[in-house]
Structure prediction request, 233 residues.
Amino acid sequence: RKEVEQDPGPFNVPEGATVAFNCTYSNSASQSFFWYRQDCRKEPKLLMSVYSSGNEDGRFTAQLNRASQYISLLIRDSKLSDSATYLCAVNPSPFSGGYNKLIFGAGTRLAVHP
Amino acid sequence: DTGVSQDPRHKITKRGQNVTFRCDPISEHNRLYWYRQTLGQGPEFLTYFQNEAQLEKSRLLSDRFSAERPKGSFSTLEIQRTEQGDSAMYLCASSLASFSTDREDQPQHFGDGTRLSIL
Prediction:
């Protein structure tokens, strides 16, 4: 089993739709979680950190479910510009502020169409 | 913009040659990471530094790979005797270490990457 797993998609949605991605992780001790966005042939860009209490940034909401070991990303009112690959990343360290190499999923592709 | 800077952006070389990449992190960041990404996959961790100390190396980092961060600022990643399987995007990231248990981990910020193609 991979340490971090994502549905590769693609998710094809119309503009204005709401879309959600899940990402599961295997190391129950993990403390830190992130969502990155990656455009084709570009570097990953941090979208948001995922806090225990969940967090929201505009149209984007991230949640953490420790019991089931997954994180989620919800995008409301999708825009054409949201088309990208969304990578989840997990720091397997059990200590906040500890070694924070990231383990990435393979990414979920989102295509928003008019 | 004082983001993470990588050089070169692209490198094409023949199998068996040595290559060296450079990464300049965000200036106040004391942690620096190297990752490798191939098509359809997420970035894979290679190694990381805290200041000038190399604290962890992945098993992916064979003896042909070496990374340095001599003054705790920029870093270099060298690949010796390149093989076709080394073709990938090499990404550098940096972050600020957080030693307070009250603070969340500081996220990593990536550079544009160096795309390596081995002929």
Notes: The two ends of chain A are 37 Å apart (CA to CA). The mean pLDDT of chain A is 92. Chain A has no helices and eleven strands.
